[in-house]
Amino acid sequence: MLASGSMTAAVDRLEKLGLVVRKSTLRDRRARMVQLTPEGKRVAAACFEKHAMDLEALMSVLSVKEKELIYGSLKKLGLHAAEKLDKQERDRDRAKEARPK
Q: 1-61 — its CATH code?
């Protein structure tokens, strides 16, 4: 995780490189959304492609059974993490709604 100041600096660098743009939101004037530019999408796709190839090369030392076990375990872990995140977001939304206006 990055601290907010570190996040700002990282987005600043990406923006200077032309990889992202900041956009305002209608829901919250204080918030800014960061969106990939076409060049940012190209760079991200290339990075993910290389990452996938690197992972496949690393996984080549495992048997089919070992790969199945790892994929299954990672899938289970990912689903659990997504459920936890969804619950945290729902709890946060409920807390906001419960606050007096």
A: 1.10.10.10
